[in-house]
UniProtKB/TrEMBL annotation:
Keywords: Signal. This is ThuA domain-containing protein. PROSITE patterns: PROKAR_LIPOPROTEIN. It comes from the Bacteria. Residues 1-27 form the signal peptide.
Length: 268
């Protein structure tokens, strides 16, 4: 091999190794700076309203569930946290048995902009009892709580097993829970499971009454389940998989929200 060529070989090897390192470093950097999927668990109960004892174990369980599935989860009961600057960090908001009027006008507007920007929303149990006189929130969550009979065993019929929240459930799901009845059910919701009201004692026996549902709403995604009244629910693997499926749907592919889109939706 000519001497000149032998001299160039180490230089060429050095250049190739340097380029490879640069590409790997760039890929690693990109992976690190990609925003995380973050969830905010909100569980405020208005002063004087009924507060579910299951909120505390529920917060711990849902936070652990998120973190075990690659999501960062924060919790708050401070409605003052509802600002654009704070909410834009989150891929989805989980209202865990929040109850009654918890927001002022500015906080309500921040929640609306969050959804319009593409944010995800999930309600658990008495979340349908939140902001009962705010029509926009009723449409977002899908219905407003009215009444429930005594806590007892009942049966849920899973009518759509293709969703992440229901694909693992039995066709007839027997549970011990506080069964909710609603008013102003949004006709656009996609019902996943219905409550067989003939399987428990109740003054109301509405056929095919909704128990869990989802829908796209004004740029965002919303999921709700009526389950989750008791502490034991948050130690129930089947129920927690149901919760995980709801959160997964609400998040979708959200990493960063588009507040320019929020302004466009508001202007419609």
């Amino acid at each position: 091999m000519p001497l000149k060529l032998r001299l160039y070989i180490p230089i060429l090897l050095f250049v190739c190794v340097s380029l490879s390192c640069t590409r790997n470093k760039t890929a690693t950097t990109q992976a690190k700076v990609r925003p995380e999927k973050r969830v905010l668990i909100f569980s405020k109960t208005a002063a004087g309203a009924y507060r579910h004892a299951s909120i505390e174990p529920g917060k711990v369980a849902v936070q652990k569930l998120c973190e075990a599935n690659g999501m960062v989860a924060d919790t708050t009961e401070d409605a003052g946290y509802f600002t654009d600057e704070k909410l834009k960090q989150y891929s989805a908001l989980v209202f865990l048995s929040s109850n009654q009027d918890v927001f002022n006008a500015e906080q309500e507007a921040a929640l609306q902009r969050y959804i319009w920007a593409g944010g995800g929303f999930m309600g658990i149990h008495s979340a349908t009892g939140t902001e009962r006189n705010w029509p926009w929130f009723n449409r977002l969550i899908g219905a407003t709580f009215v009444w429930h009979p005594p806590i007892q065993t009942g049966t849920i019929d899973v009518i759509d097993a293709s969703h992440p929240a229901t694909k693992h459930l039995p066709k007839r799901w027997n549970r011990y829970d506080e069964w909710y009845f609603y008013r102003d059910i949004n006709p656009d919701i996609k019902v996943l499971a219905t409550l067989d009201t003939t399987t428990f004692k109740s003054e109301r026996h509405t056929a095919n009454y909704p128990f869990a549902w989802y829908h796209e709403f004004e740029g965002g995604r919303s999921f709700y389940t009526a389950g989750g009244h008791s502490d034991k629910d948050y130690a129930d693997e089947t129920f927690m998989k149901h919760i995980l499926g709801g959160i997964t749907y609400a998040i979708g592919n959200n990493y960063e929200l588009d507040y320019a889109k929020a302004a466009a939706v508001k202007g419609q």
